[in-house]
Every structure is written in C-alpha cells, then in structure tokens.
Design a protein that fits this description.
single chain, 570 residues, alpha/beta, Beta-Lactamase, 7-stranded mixed beta sheet, 21 helices, 44% helix, 19% strand, globular
Amino acid sequence: MVFPNLSQYSMLGTFFFGVSTFRGEGFYFSILKILGVLLVFLLWVRTCWWVDQDCRDVGLSLDFWNPVMFAAGAMGLLVVWLLPWYVLSWPIFLSLYLTPTLIFVGMRNAKVPQEQKVFTERHLKLMAQKYLKLNLGLDEEKSEETGPPVRFIGKSYHDAQEDPTRVARAAGSKGYKAALEMVYEAIQLRATDIHMEPTRNQMAVRFRIDGILQTTDPFNRHMGEAVINIFKVLADMDIVEKRKPQDGSFSANVEDRTVDFRTATAGSVAGEKLVMRIFDRGQQIMDLAQLGMRDRMHEQVYSIVTQPHGMLVVCGPTGAGKSTTLYSSLNEIDRFQKNVITIENPVECQVPNVTQIEVNIKAGKTFASELRSILRQDPDVIMVGEVRDAETAEIACQAAQTGHMVFTTLHANDSVTAIIRLLDLGVQPATLSSAISAVLSQRLVRVLCPKCKVRYKPNPEMLRKANLPTDKIKFFFRPPDAEERKHAQQATGEPEPCQHCGGTGYRGRTGIFELLVISDRIRELIRENPNLNAIKQEAVKGGMKYLQEDGLRQVIQGRTSIQELLRVCK
C-alpha cells in the first residue's frame, strides 16, 4: 500500500504538534498497530451490541446508553485518524471505549443478582475457563455451592446464637435446593409472603408481591411436603405435627444482607399449609418522608410525633403499612435523649436504642400486662403494637395523659371510625378526648411501572364527579392492556412481559393517608356527644382530606391509576 505524496502528513504534524512526522515513502503502515486499533474497534462493536441487549434485560435506558456507547467509539476512531502519534491516539481510543463501558457495568451490576454480575472474580474465572481453558479454582467453588446465593441460618428472630443443627438437618433433606431456589426467587421478586397450599395432586406456591398474590411454579405433592418440612426444621417446629397450627422463625444470608422469615403452619382438609412472612431489611422504609405523604401532612405528622405527650393512632386494615408508619415515627425521635419502649406482637423490625418487648400470651405477657409494667420503667415514648381490648386502650390513654407520648395501631376503616371504635372498647369519652392527639388512617396503593404505563385522556364526566377541573387535567395513566403490550413488544423488540414489573403494570407501593388532628372543638364533641357525622363534618372544616382525595393526588401525579385507587378505597 503506497502513497507517493506524503508531505501533507508531515505538514499536518508540524502544524498541530510542532514536530515533523514525515514517515517516508513505501509500506509505512505497521501491521501490529493496525491490529491494535482493529482489536479495540471489534471490542467496541461487540460491547455496543451487548449494551443494547442488556439494557432491555435489566431495565436501563436504551435512549441514553446506545448514543453514549456509539459516541465514545466514534470519537476514539476520530482521534486515531487525526493524531499521527500512535502512542497517544491508541490509549485515548482505549480510554474512550472503556470509560462508559465500566460505568455501565457498575450500574447494571447493582441491579442484577450476584451470579449475573460481570467483571467479578467469579465471572473472570468463568471466562478464563471457557476461552483459555484455565482452571482457576472454579470447580472447587462450584462443589461448595448448594444453589442460589442463599444460606439459611438456624436462628430464631431474637436469638443471639445460631443453632447449626437445624441447618445440618435441613441440608441433608430432600428438596433443600428447591427450598433455596424458591426463597431466592421470592426475594428477587420483592415478595412479602410465600404461600404453600396443598391441593389434590400438587403443592401450589404463591408470592404476595405489592399486596397481590401471584401464582408461580408449583411443586408436586411429595416435593412440596419435603420443602415444608425443611422450613419447619429451620424454624424449630415439630415436623410430625401436621394438624395443629405452629409458628416459628429463622433467618438467611442472601448475597450481602440478612433476611428474616416468620413461619406459620395450619392443618387443612387437603393437608398442611405454610405461610412465610419475609422481612427483608434491604427493602424496609424507615423514614416518614418516603411514605408518600404530601409535604403539608408530613410536617403535621412530624410535629405530632415529636410532642412531649399525647397519643397518635394509626388505623387501617391488615397489610396497610401501619407498623412501617410507626417505625418511621420512632426514627424521628431523638432516641438517645429519650427512653423509648415498644410492645409488639411480633417485633417486625429492630430499632437501635429502643427497648422492644414481644407479647407472649402463653407466658402471660399480654399488651395490657406489659404496658402496665413498663410505665414503671420511666418511659418517654411508648409504642403499643395494637389496641385489641378495653384494658389496653384504657391504660394507653392514661399513659398519654400522664406525660408520655403513645403510638399505637387500631383496626378501623377511617380516622373518625377509629375514635368510635375506641369508645366502643370502653374508653371513657372524657379520657379519650384529653389523651388523643391525632388519628392517621392509611392504605397502600401500587405504583405504576414507569417503563410500560400508558397515558390516556380521562372521561370529563368522571372528573366532574370527582370535583376535578376538566380544563386543567389533560391525562391520567394506567397499566397497558394485553393488546398494547403486544404492540409495544413488536415496536421495541423487548421481551414480553415488561421485565421491570413482570407484566403486572405496577412496581412498588406508596401510601395514601387521611389525617385527623384533634382540635379543641373535636375534643368537645367527643366529650359531650360522640356523634360520627358531627365529628366528620368538623374534621373536614379543619382541613382533613379523605383517603380518596389523597389518592386522587397520586392519580393526578401519574403515580397510580384510578382503577387501583378504586380497588383499595371501595
């Protein structure tokens, strides 16, 4: 390959660098240098293809990463073309290729399980074994692995010491690997509960994800019973007893965090059923600002929980996030200068510098008896897991009157009904009116998946019924239907269903709230004439927003759908 006129290269070099770069006539191209550039070029092309595919799988932005990867390589090629100094241009080309690649690897590794991460020690050993036929100890690692990156711990929730005999018995049982895989799948899908339900021929398995039960692959009946026995052994339960209800707990190390499990069994006509509640500390919310409250309500709740005395009641059905709200409230308190004691059944989350007591009815430790005893422990803040009876309600109100701040939960449909329920439990109106500070009613609604939610124009008639301005609200959002999912899959080439939400259209949950702050007028109504409608009217005059109104705020902001709001607030 001969170019007779090379003076232009010499002049360019002299112009840009002040150094003559005349390379003479003849075959002046270096084969090694061309191969070096070609190697980086081919790596860049292959990486661009991989980034395009991987973005679809892990949910990263194609619109961002594809242009970034292309621009980085194109700039590197331009540098190689313009700079005649190979010792300078080739490292720049390599740096421009590696910089976005390594940033992408760091971001995608944070979103995938341990075994799917790249450029880790394990991944490099695999690559060396596959392409270079080098054995770097991977076989020994594989022989020690028992499946997914889950290691069960034979330790109950409050035990300090691990019982290795539980794990040893479970590990030697049939179905141990199946149990590991099921638990790992549930954690990866963000499940809060695992249900194993016997049928005639199989063991059905369902995960509760974002409050909704979703069916997954079942076990055959024999394997399902073996898996249940493994969890009973880990939770220190009697595997022979299959009719009476039992409960227990154990833990597991999952990748780099600890996950706790509470296990409960019950006998049924078809066989033994098992339900496991998953407490994943990596998924717990412990901050009031993250619960989904609007700014004004967050300020009101913060001022209430930091009061020196009073009572905050959080109400709602089972699974509405009441305990999470109370734990978040405890985190707003200076626990180093105040004595904080909780009474719970069970203790769902351990809070630093807080004395947590668990109710044990068999041992005679009830809410009422423990609450009566801790009043002699000089508490500043008391959290009562739930008010279930008249004695507990009466003692909690008396504690709020005698200079303590009391947090508690109650099963009631809304905030005003919670007051009536406390009166029905036997609390005297005068006692309740002077003790209670506020009632917070709440529900959890699913958040629309940002990857696949669909924008649509709402019906003006529906907006008028909801007292919303038809001229200002242009669009609502909802999950896609089956036809829209199919069209989106054909247009983008992405796998169906959506990998971010698993095809449900929702990912995660947020709260909607109804806050009743007890004013002087409401105290008078409680004391004199505890009438539901009168209290409700006065609360609305004071600025209380109903649950549906707060939920409409989330709908207008595009965070959830009107269908989800109606499902939760019927």
